[in-house]
Specification:
The chain contains one helix and eleven strands; from the N terminus they run αβββββββββββ. It has 147 residues and is mainly beta. Strand 1 and strand 2 form a beta hairpin.
């Protein structure tokens, strides 16, 4: 017998009570100011907001801000909404601009940084509402920029 993943074949009302959707207002979610060089982050969607499958994080990066090397136990998509950033994953490096996205597989060591102006907005979508992060490097300003 093949088991269906949680939620497959269930109606929205079965998953969310009688509601077909759950609205999470950004204005209701805490924006966390973190010490430099970490970006400002808003945990928009997670288990805390009722999600059962995803985490959505909105990162606001000023010049020099970065998220150091880390891994997740699930797949992650980084989507650049505004500005640009440099992403490192494994032994690969890529410059991303507004409208670009990158898919990071589970367990891949990765990080990203912003060295330009103006501010960059990077949305991270993790394939779990309770994704686990393991840090291997604290951000440091010595890492080269994207030029």
């Amino acid at each position: 017998m093949i088991a269906k993943p949680s939620g497959i074949g269930r109606t929205a009302s079965a998953m969310y009570g009688r509601r077909s959707m759950r609205i999470v207002r950004g204005s209701d979610q805490l924006v966390e100011q973190r010490p430099s060089p970490l970006p400002t982050i808003q945990r928009l969607v997670s288990a805390a907001t009722g999600s059962t499958q995803l985490t959505v994080l909105v990162n606001q990066l000023d010049a020099g801000d970065e998220v150091g090397s880390h891994t997740h136990d699930v797949e992650e998509v980084l989507y650049v909404v505004t500005g640009r950033c440099q992403v490192e994953a494994g032994d690969e490096t890529a410059a991303l601009h507004a409208g670009d996205a990158v898919v990071i597989p589970p367990g891949a060591l990765h990080g990203f940084r912003h060295s330009g102006q103006p501010q960059a907005t990077v949305v991270a979508v993790l394939a779990s509402a309770t994704a686990q992060t393991t840090w291997s490097q604290r951000p440091s300003r010595e890492m080269p920029g994207i030029g």
